[in-house]
Each structure stands twice: as structure tokens, then as C-alpha cells.
Write a structure and sequence with these properties.
The complex is a heterodimer. Chain A is an alpha/beta fold. Chain A contains 14 helices and 17 strands. An 8-stranded parallel β-barrel of chain A has the order 1-2-5-6-11-12-13-17, surrounded by 6 helices. A 3-stranded antiparallel beta sheet of chain A has the order 4-3-15. The longest helix of chain B has 26 residues. The chains are: A alpha/beta, B alpha/beta. Chain B: This is LLM class flavin-dependent oxidoreductase.
């Protein structure tokens, strides 16, 4: 039986509470050179794609702009278009939300990127934005969870209709015949519950037909959305058992949409730390955790759960003795914790008491999500095992340093995966769809 | 006397609707990166101040405001901001100025897009905001707003004029939001203070709290202040309302005089609009737009244009003056027009890449020979090319005076 081929992607670690900006090797998160460095590293490593997250409002804590983490990022599609000029094969994935945008404009910009990059565009469709973010937009507005997915699903379907509004041969460009485009090219009409739009789309069909669709979402709606409509799903399941359960669940949902299980790639977001020995790697990993969870970060993290000001507490002392305020919450502009905060606090109290943990130690323990730690050889082995045992199809690496955070992975681990025959030695096609092996888009409209 | 400024306006296969049928055109390449990077390299070779990239949210049409069904002209275009961004890494000096719509888009998205272009190009980003105008037919692409049917001539009716003024007022708010967002991070807001664990100085990041008649945005931006502070804002204007918009909102205005007298009148009107708007600081830089067909042989450009007119079935129509002739003749025209008080010209090549090369390889050396154009770039940023200083952020408080 042939071994599964691993898919690798790179996340640019800009705005993130895990980026260690205090490290002397940490560079700018906004300077274009940083993006070039990471993208070229990923391309040198033959990664499938490079991925940018999105932000539409600065985060706040207790009504004030959050000042402890890296903040400030460019607009994704603009940066990716610039990067398309300095890379040749790397896929370029932009996160664009479906709440504060309109399908016509998003479809147009993504199709543009697909043309300019020669078929390397991808769209991470996100849904989770709130009224807080809405204060920066015309339509303002908040959509509750079910409506958000309804809008996202119809948004994506509408975008596909726009991409299909030009058939593959509608762009003729024949000077002798005097025909530039076929009659009616770009004509569309969509009438649904979320969008009622019609007219002429300005962008001829791109090299990929449809840009690659990425989705992140762990809820039942999110998994269903991905099974029905996505080419790639990001997961948070960076542990083997979790990963296998998630993989099995999501892949089993594809059949009812008439899709083969290999048409959707599951890529957990993961971290890695390399060392000369296992112990060396473990020590580095612990250092990184301490740099990520500074004393102030630890308190701010707890405040998000306690729902109250804890600035008087000693981060190296015991957990706060006050009860949490379970009201509205104090953190805005980032993924919210959904669930029973009171229950979480009780669990942490028990854990801290049992192990004698300080506030900072507890936060380090409670938020630890480091995935692969070891020597290059052991990390390559862990990556391969994960994929061969159907816990994932590959990974989105989230380095803790900008922009050099993937250098050692590409230099030391990728060659080992190539030696094992589980990762490409070179790109085999020009488009991101080629890299992912997911085939073309579904059912393009043909000119009769 | 300083030299004049030159811009090239890039549009489709050129500004003649039949340009794509010219033997030198590359109609099968219009949607590729190579086409645009080739044009940008040529424009920078000519030391031009900037290039603009046209755009609209609707398909091109031979009849303003009404879609047509012609298949013998270029139809289809790419997003101009993304084209401009593509051009940033391969160029090092030329300004990159995309067009965006202000009627159907979000100021927040546009603001961070142009700021990101300025970051990616290290200070060469610009912007041409454009009201929907003739593109009111784009409204059904969004389904958010309903406009009356706007056929040819409709904007000259009282109802049309009123709507146009409303769209301009909205555009003015749009630009104000975009500019405030650019300033919403002070230049030194990122402090990376390991002693206190603070990455940002939150006192240097500002809500803009814009609440206008048409738009409201809270801010701040998510993108740190761009390298130029304020990327260059440019506007195309044909009359008093748009002149006033430009006087309030823009750094450069493109006007469309058809003669020296026209140019003098336009300059006078622009200056009057500036007084009416109580504009302070740098005066508007005024560029005149011309469509150009250039050939070394006298008469060749005119016959080339005539051939394209025949192919298209009608003589080229344009809001701007159409010039056909030799680069030397064009230099004479530009140096004469300039006496009306113009700072420069935005030339619209009739056919790409031929007429762009006519500008960079024909016109530019002649202007240089007459001491009227730079022989090397003297600044690294677009504002620098135009002699515009990098402005202080409007929210910045001088050091030591912070409360």
C-alpha cells in the first residue's frame, strides 16, 4: 500500500498571543521583507501554501486596546498579490470573512489573485465576527451563529456562481476575428435569502477555475460546511487521538455530498520545537512557553475567564481567591471561549491546588498546545506517524517567531520527510489544486 | 523652475477600445502578471512619477451608464489594488496608484488595502477614489442600494446632479475615514518594551470615531501607519463639484483641458475650489490628462489611430484631449499647456505597450533635453517625487506635551 503524501502549509505568525516578540531574533510583523522571508522559506520547503489570518478590529481587554501581544497587520489579499511576484509555485491563502464583505467584491479579488499568481489563490472562509467588529463597517450588524453559517454558505455559493459566470472559453482575444469575449460572458443572477444580486462579473475564469476553499471550524455546523464546500479544513486537533476522531468524523460526512474522502484535506494547526537532543528540545519548548506567557499575559489571560480586574494579584502567587464574574466578559475582538467559565475556573483551582501551581504556571499548563518537540528525526517521525495513521493529511505550521520561525523546519525536517518518500521533492504542477491533489472545481458552466 | 511631473494611466490594452487589435498589443496576456509587470518596468524605465491602474466594479461598456453587448472590445478587468501590489516588488521608485470605487465598497477595507500597498512598496502607494457615477449599474452587483436608471445624459438632469453631489459627499466622507485610519496609529506606537511586557503603547493608537451623514467607522486601523504617513490621494475631476471634492480630499487632481485656454480655466477653478474649501497646507498638484498616440514619423500615429477607429466603427471618444503625433510635437504641447499653471500630466497611452514606450523612449528624452524632466529619481517615495512632505499624524501629540 502506498504511503500517504503529506501536505504542509505555513502560517505567518503576526497578530497572535503565541508570537514571541521579545526574542532578539523576532523581526517586524508588518515590514514586507518579513512576508517575503517566510513565503520564500515555505516555497524552498515545497510547501503547498502560505496562509494569512485576518483582523478587522484591534483586540480589547477591559475596554482598552490590548497592548501585550503583537498587533498590526496588513490586508491579506494585497500582501499575497505582492508575494505572488516573488514566488512561483507557493499557494497563497487569504482569510476573508463573509460577514463584513459582499460576494461580488470578494469573488472579484480572489479571482484576480488567481490570475496574477497563475493559479495559486486560496480563500479561508471565516464567519465569526461580531457587533464589536461591525463598528468598522457600513452594515454594522451582528449575525448569530446559525445565520452566520447560512450567510457563509450562500456567500460561497454565490462566489462560485460568479467564478462560473465566465466559461473557460469565454475569453477569446482573437484580433483577426475581432472577438474579445463571447456574448454574455460574466452574466449572473443570484437570488437567495442572503443575497439578491445580478449583472456582469468583470473577471474571466481564473487558472484554477475556483480558488481553493479553506474552512476552519470545529462545531457541527463548521464540520458540515467543510464537508459540503471546502477543499481544506484547518483543525485544532494537534494530538493523535483527537486528530483521528476528528478526521474520521469529517471524512465520513463527505459521501452524502457526493465527494470522495480525499477531496477534503484536513490540516491541523501545529507548532514545533527542534533540539539537538530530546532533552534539549524539551528545554527549549519550556523556554518558549515562558516567553509566551509573561507575568502580565498570565494575569490578562485569567481576567478573560474571571471576568474581572485581577491586576492586583501576583502572577507568581496562587490563583485569585475571588469568585469569577460570569457576566458579559472583558475580552473583545478575538475568538471567544464558549462554555461554562465557572466550571473552567473550578477545574483550574483543583489543578493548581493539586500541583502547587502559581498563576503563571497554571496558565502555561492550561494553554499548552505545543505539538511536535524533539530532534529533527523524531519530529519527522511524529509528523509522518500522524499522517499515516489518519489523524491528518498534513499540517499548518504556526511558528513562534517572525519571520525566521520556519527556517530550521525547512532546513532539517523537510529533507527527512523527502527521504522517507512521504513529501514531494519538488512541485509537480503549477497550481495549488495540483499541490493538494484535489482536482478541479465542481461543475463549471460550459458555453452551450 | 522644477521639472514637470509625468504619470502613465494604464487601462486594459490601452485607451482606444480597439487597442487590443493593434499588431503590437498582447490581448491574450491582459489577465496575466507578466503583462502588468512589463508595463510597470517600462514606466519606471522612463522615470515617471507614478502609474495609475483603472478599475470599476462593472464590465466596460461603450455607452456610459448602460451595459452593452459588444464582443469586439475588451471586456473584463482585474482588481486594481491587487495589480498595484503585484507591481511593488519588481519596481523600486515609481508610484503605484490604483483606482477603487467609493460607492459600493467599505472604507475600512480600502484603507488597509492602500496602507498595505504602501508598506509593500516602501512608500510608493497612492489611491484614486472614484464614485460609481456612470457605474450606477453596478448597484445590482451588491444588492444593497437602489439607484434610478441612469442612461446617457441622465447625470445632466436635476435629479442626476443631485444624486451625483450626494455620491461625492459620500466619497468625501470615505476619503476622510481612510485618511484618519492611516493616522490612527502614531509612527512610534509599536514599542516592544520588554521591561513592561508591552508591545504597543496604547496611548498612541487612536479611535477615529467618524460619524458622518453617510458612513461611520470606529477604528483604529489594524494596519500600522503606512511609510508615507498618508499615501498619495488623487482624483479625476471634470467640473466644479469634483474640483471641490479634490480640493478637500486629494493631493493631486487630474483635469481634462482640451486647449491652453481650457487649462487656464481649469486651473483657476481648481484654485477657487481650494479657497472655497479653505484648504491649508500643500496646494493641490494639478495634472492634465491626455490620450496619446505617438510615432516618430509625422502622420503615422494619426493613421494608426484612424485604423483603430475604423476597426471599432467610430472615432475614439474621450473626456480628455486626444493627441496624435511625434513625441517632439507632444513635448511642445505639454510645455505650452504647462504655462497655464499645471504641475504635470497624466498620459493615457492609446495602445499598450506601444504608446507607453512612445512616452518613455520618445517623449521623456526630449523633455529631459529641454531641461523639463528629471534624469534620475531624486526621492524614494511617491510623495517625495511630488515634493510633498511626509505629514505628521493628526492624532500625534508632540513629545513632552502628552497629558
Amino acid at each position: 500500500m502506498p504511503v500517504k503524501q503529506i501536505h504542509l502549509a505555513a502560517h505567518f505568525p503576526g497578530v497572535n498571543n503565541t508570537t514571541v516578540w521579545s526574542d532578539p531574533r523576532s523581526g517586524s510583523q508588518i515590514d514586507f521583507d518579513s512576508f517575503v522571508h517566510l513565503a520564500r522559506t515555505a516555497e524552498r520547503g515545497k510547501f503547498d501554501f502560505f496562509f494569512l489570518a485576518e483582523g478587522l478590529r484591534l483586540r480589547e481587554m477591559k475596554g482598552r486596546i490590548h497592548d501585550l501581544d503583537v498587533a498590526g497587520r496588513p490586508e491579506s489579499l494585497t500582501v499575497l498579490s505582492a508575494l505572488s511576484a516573488v514566488t512561483t509555485r507557493l499557494g497563497l491563502a487569504a482569510t476573508v470573512n463573509s460577514t463584513f464583505n459582499e460576494p461580488y467584491e470578494v469573488a472579484r479579488r480572489l479571482a484576480t489573485l488567481d490570475h496574477l499568481s497563475g493559479g495559486r489563490a486560496a480563500w479561508n472562509v471565516v464567519t465569526s465576527y461580531d457587533a464589536f467588529t461591525g463598528e468598522n463597517f457600513r452594515r454594522g450588524g451582528y449575525l448569530d451563529e446559525a445565520d452566520r453559517y447560512n450567510r457563509a454558505r450562500e456567500f460561497l455559493h454565490t462566489a462560485r456562481e460568479l467564478w462560473d459566470s465566465w466559461a473557460p472559453r469565454d475569453l477569446v482575444a482573437d484580433p483577426a476575428a475581432g472577438e474579445f469575449a463571447r456574448a454574455g460572458a460574466g452574466t449572473f443572477a443570484h437570488r437567495g435569502t442572503q443575497f439578491d444580486i445580478a449583472g456582469r462579473f468583470t473577471v474571466p475564469r481564473g487558472p484554477q477555475g475556483h480558488p481553493v476553499i479553506i474552512q476552519a471550524g470545529d462545531s457541527d455546523e463548521g464540520r458540515e460546511f467543510a464537508a459540503a464546500d471546502a477543499d481544506v479544513i484547518f483543525s485544532r486537533h494537534g494530538r493523535l487521538d483527537d486528530g483521528r476522531a476528528f478526521y474520521k468524523d469529517v471524512k465520513s460526512r463527505l459521501a452524502k455530498y457526493g465527494r470522495r474522502s480525499d477531496e477534503l484535506k484536513i490540516l491541523p494547526a501545529v507548532t514545533y520545537v527542534l533540539g539537538d537532543t530530546e532533552q534539549d528540545a524539551a528545554e527549549r519548548a519550556a523556554e518558549i512557553r515562558r516567553a509566551q506567557v509573561t507575568p502580565r499575559n498570565a494575569l490578562v489571560f485569567l481576567e478573560g475567564f474571571w471576568g474581572r480586574d485581577l491586576s492586583g494579584y501576583d502572577p507568581d502567587g496562587p490563583l485569585p481567591d475571588v469568585e469569577p464574574d460570569l457576566g458579559e466578559g472583558v475580552s473583545k475582538g478575538r475568538a471567544q471561549f464558549r462554555g461554562d467559565r465557572g466550571e473552567v475556573v473550578r477545574t483550574w483551582r483543583a489543578l493548581a491546588a493539586e500541583r502547587g501551581l502559581s498563576i503563571r504556571e497554571l496558565v502555561i499548563e492550561a494553554t499548552g498546545r505545543q505539538t511536535f518537540i524533539g530532534t529533527p528525526r523524531s519530529v519527522a517521525g511524529q509528523i509522518d506517524e500522524f499522517v499515516q495513521s489518519d489523524a491528518a493529511d498534513g499540517f499548518v505550521f504556526v511558528p513562534h517567531l517572525t519571520p525566521g520561525g520556519l527556517d530550521d523546519l525547512v532546513e532539517h525536517v523537510v529533507p527527512l520527510l523527502q527521504e522517507k518518500g512521504v513529501f514531494r521533492a519538488d512541485y509537480t504542477g503549477p497550481t495549488l489544486r495540483d499541490h493538494l491533489g484535489i482536482g478541479g472545481p465542481r461543475a463549471p458552466k460550459e458555453t452551450p | 523652475m522644477t521639472g514637470l511631473h509625468l504619470a502613465a494611466a494604464l487601462n486594459d490594452a490601452g485607451w482606444h477600445p480597439a487597442a487590443w487589435r493593434d499588431p503590437g498589443a498582447r490581448p491574450d496576456a491582459l489577465f496575466t502578471a507578466a503583462y502588468w509587470t512589463g508595463l510597470a518596468a517600462e514606466a519606471e524605465r522612463g522615470l515617471l512619477d507614478l502609474l495609475t491602474v483603472e478599475d470599476s466594479l462593472g464590465l466596460q461598456s461603450a455607452v456610459p451608464g448602460v451595459p452593452d453587448d459588444r464582443t469586439d472590445q475588451v471586456r473584463g478587468r482585474l482588481d486594481a489594488v491587487l495589480i498595484a501590489a503585484l507591481l511593488a516588488p519588481g519596481t523600486s521608485r515609481i508610484g503605484l496608484v490604483p483606482t477603487t470605487d467609493t460607492t459600493h465598497t467599505e472604507p475600512f477595507h480600502v484603507s488597509i488595502g492602500i496602507a498595505s500597498l504602501d508598506h509593500a512598496s516602501r512608500g510608493r502607494g497612492g489611491w484614486r477614489p472614484q464614485v460609481a457615477g456612470a457605474g450606477l449599474t453596478d448597484a445590482p452587483h451588491f444588492g444593497r442600494r437602489v439607484f434610478p436608471e441612469a442612461g446617457p445624459g441622465w447625470f445632466a438632469t436635476p435629479e442626476g446632479e443631485l444624486l451625483a453631489l450626494g455620491l461625492l459627499a459620500e466619497a468625501a466622507e470615505f476619503v476622510e475615514i481612510v485618511r484618519r485610519l492611516w493616522d490612527s496609529w502614531e509612527d512610534d506606537a509599536e514599542i516592544r518594551d520588554t521591561a513592561t511586557g508591552r508591545f504597543l503603547d496604547r496611548a498612541k493608537v487612536h479611535y477615529i470615531d467618524f460619524d458622518g451623514d453617510h458612513l461611520s467607522v470606529r477604528g483604529p486601523s489594524i494596519t500600522p501607519r503606512p511609510p508615507q504617513g498618508q499615501p498619495l490621494v488623487t482624483a479625476l475631476a471634470h467640473g466644479p463639484g469634483p474640483y471641490e471634492f479634490a480640493a478637500r480630499a486629494a493631493d493631486v487632481v487630474y483635469v481634462t483641458p482640451h486647449s491652453r485656454a481650457d487649462a487656464e480655466a481649469a486651473v483657476a477653478q481648481v484654485r477657487e475650489a481650494e479657497r472655497d474649501a479653505a484648504r491649508t497646507g500643500e496646494p493641490l498638484r494639478i495634472f492634465a490628462d491626455l490620450v496619446v498616440f505617438l510615432d516618430e514619423t509625422p502622420g503615422a500615429a494619426a493613421s494608426r489611430k484612424a485604423r483603430l477607429d475604423d476597426l471599432d466603427g467610430a472615432p475614439l471618444a474621450s473626456d480628455a484631449r486626444i493627441f496624435t503625433g511625434t513625441p517632439g510635437d507632444l513635448a511642445d504641447v505639454l510645455l505650452d499647456l504647462r504655462e497655464a499653471g499645471l504641475d504635470g500630466f497624466r498620459l493615457r497611452p492609446g495602445v499598450l505597450p506601444a504608446d507607453l514606450a512612445g512616452i518613455t523612449r520618445g517623449l521623456v528624452p526630449i523633455l529631459q533635453g529641454r531641461g523639463a524632466f528629471r534624469t534620475a529619481y531624486e526621492a524614494a517615495t511617491l510623495r517625495g517625487h511630488l515634493g510633498l512632505p511626509r505629514p505628521a499624524g493628526r492624532y500625534s501629540v508632540p513629545t513632552g506635551r502628552r497629558p
